[in-house]
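Whiteboard transcription, Tuesday session. T.W. wrote the structure tokens on the left side:
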């Protein structure tokens, strides 16, 4: 006869299992869907997580220090005196009030004197830029300006111009040199001026043509009065090479998130004789340096690339 004593332990075990199942259900109900990675908002009243803050923009239009690399244009060559550098009128880092350089516009006169550096060297070609970048990196600037390439086109002959592939490799090396030390520093790259326009503007000046005969950019300016087919083809070849160089500058810079060009503004600028040195009718005058500073400032401070537009002639 069964008096129930054998079934009692089984009943107790069933009640224990039922109690554990109830506790588990309550725990799941309190936690909502979070255990499955879902959202606990809605009926439970739990607040949604706040959105992540937006990342800081890659381009800062107000850098606090500037270093310049490049050639004679950035050194202010022949702007103040014949055959002399004049860095105080440099479009990039000069202190002259007549120019109102990029550094002065960004940092103020006092800031530019303390936190801007000019590492450009007269006569430099693109092959010289990596070493200049290494020197600029030691200053740890927030912005580096680049204007180089005119001397790669200004050779003894058109055939002696720097090949485009070499020009590209040299510019890429220069950026790598900077990035090795300063991965977050911004870079502004000015386009190479239109050398054929230099010829068309300066050839009307007899003194300028005499200076050119001393060997100033012979690939473009040699035999300035010659208008035969060979001379025309030579000048067009140089102009096409400058355009190819400018395309290289644009393409290489576009691969670097903290690099910005002037979108061809310097090349497109319709300068006249007032913007050319009165000693060589080739390098920028003080007024020409001021125009370069204007273009650079527009490009550097623009919210988006491509804001530097050629000014009036």
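and on the right, the sequence the group agreed on:
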């Amino acid at each position: 006869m069964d008096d129930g004593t054998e079934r009692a332990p089984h009943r107790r075990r069933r009640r224990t299992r039922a109690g554990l199942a109830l506790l588990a259900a309550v725990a799941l109900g309190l936690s909502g869907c979070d255990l499955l990675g879902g959202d606990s908002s809605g009926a439970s009243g739990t607040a949604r997580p706040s959105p992540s803050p937006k990342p800081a923009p890659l381009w800062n239009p107000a850098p606090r220090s500037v270093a310049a690399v490049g050639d004679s244009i950035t050194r202010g060559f022949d702007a103040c005196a014949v055959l002399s550098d004049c860095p105080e009128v440099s479009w990039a880092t000069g202190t002259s009030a007549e120019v109102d350089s990029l550094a002065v516009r960004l940092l103020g006169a006092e800031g530019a004197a303390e936190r801007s550096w000019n590492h450009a060297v007269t006569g430099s070609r693109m092959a010289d830029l990596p070493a200049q970048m290494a020197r600029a990196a030691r200053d740890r600037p927030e912005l580096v300006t680049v204007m180089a390439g005119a001397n790669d086109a200004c050779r003894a002959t058109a055939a002696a111009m720097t090949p485009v592939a070499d020009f590209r490799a040299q510019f890429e090396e220069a950026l790598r040199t900077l990035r090795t030390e300063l991965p977050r520093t911004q870079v502004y790259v000015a386009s190479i001026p239109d050398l054929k326009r230099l010829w068309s503007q300066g050839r009307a000046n007899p003194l300028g043509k005499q200076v050119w005969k001393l060997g100033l950019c012979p690939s473009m300016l040699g035999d300035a009065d010659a208008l035969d087919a060979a001379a025309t083809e030579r000048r067009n070849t140089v102009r096409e090479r400058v355009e190819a160089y400018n395309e290289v500058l644009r393409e290489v810079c576009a691969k670097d998130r903290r690099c910005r060009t002037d979108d061809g503004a310097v090349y497109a600028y319709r300068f006249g004789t007032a913007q050319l040195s009165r000693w060589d009718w080739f390098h920028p005058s003080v007024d020409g340096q001021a125009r370069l500073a204007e273009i650079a400032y527009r490009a550097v401070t623009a919210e988006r690339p491509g804001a530097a537009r050629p000014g009036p002639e």
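Someone added at the bottom: Strands lie at 66-70, 116-118, 143-147, 186-189, 259-261.
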